[in-house]
Amino acid sequence: MITHAEVPLSQYWEQRARHYARRGAGLAAICSYGMPPFYNLFIDICQRLALRPWLQQATGREALDLGCGVGRWSLRIARRTLRVTGVDLSPTMVAEATRRAERRGLAAKCRFLVADAGQLALGRRFGFILGVTLLQHILDDAKLDAAVHAIQGHLAEDGLLVLLEAAPSHPVTRCDTAVFRARSVDTYRSVFRRAGLSLVAMTGVDPAPFKTLLLPHYKALPGALQIPALAAVTGASLAVDLPLGRKWVSRSWHKVFVLRRTGGSERQRKE
Asked: Is the Cα dihedral 110, 137, 91, 148 positive or negative?
């Protein structure tokens, strides 16, 4: 297992963006780094199915897309929101998201900024905030608490926060790397509670266990076996995740957390 040695996330995401942000839909930059297109398309489909009912809640609101990448979610909700602000660590990601918004005629409704979502300070609140696989890249527990507290501070009183994160029901470390940490559901519940957030719904994404069993060993396989093994795992996962992903929450590797403000964080209540 790779240890949790801190890797500069800005450098990590900028490298990903420079390699893959302008290739097709940019999924290799924002889903699974450098993996084959069929695998990243599978991830994209599962995430879209999981988020579809919640993205509708952005209608008529000011929206914030945390870790916006190439604008995959910002552009999806832009037509239904008043305005979308996307933030990302990588200047190349932000430039590409801006370019894609212009090409789709959505530039007037989208604003993309280079900013650290873990240290958010935009000076305003939003009716809808979305974060997809964002918190799982913040390895330090204290920094995670600070990030969620900062996000809560940007959520309007009646706003909705939707987060999709790797959150197994029981602690699992086999997939952890120097830039990724899968925290348990109970850990996230505690983090949200401390930040003054109430969990109003939780749904699943990908209950099939096959990919989390393969991926820690994928790079060690002989080259000729990597793609066949990944294709087999992807096909088997699709048969489970597409029909059952949203319902089989307890077995899902990723989960969608839907949250609202509760009236102040523990830190604020102590002050």
From this structure: positive
**Burial 43-67, CB ≥16 within 10 A → b, else e:** beebbebbbeebbebbeebbbbbbb
How far, in whole angstroms, is CA 247 from its chain's centroid? Answer: 19
Position of tokens 């370019």? Answer: 99
To the nearest 10°, report the CA torsion of 25, 115, 62, 249.
60
Query: Would you give the DSSP letter of residue 180?
Result: B
Question: What topology is assigned to 9-270 in CATH?
Answer: Rossmann fold (3.40.50)
Mean pLDDT, the chain, whole residue set: 93
**CB-based contact 206:254 (threshold 8 Å):** yes
| pLDDT tens sequence across 38-79 | 999 999 999 999 999 999 999 999 999 999 999 999 999 999
Using alpha carbons, select from 86, 83, 102 the residue that is nearest to residue 94: 86
Alpha-carbon distance 179 to 33, whole Å? 11
Q: Where do the H-state alpha helices sit in 78-222?
A: 91-103, 141-152, 185-194, 210-218
Domain positions in the chain: 9-270
In terms of Cα–Cα distance, which of 215, 240, 270, 253 is closest to 35? 215
> What average pLDDT does the segment 192-199 reach?
98
Q: Residue 39 contacts by C-beta under 8 Å, 6 or more apart in sequence?
A: 32, 230, 234
**Per-residue pLDDT at 9:** 87
This prediction's pTM: 0.93
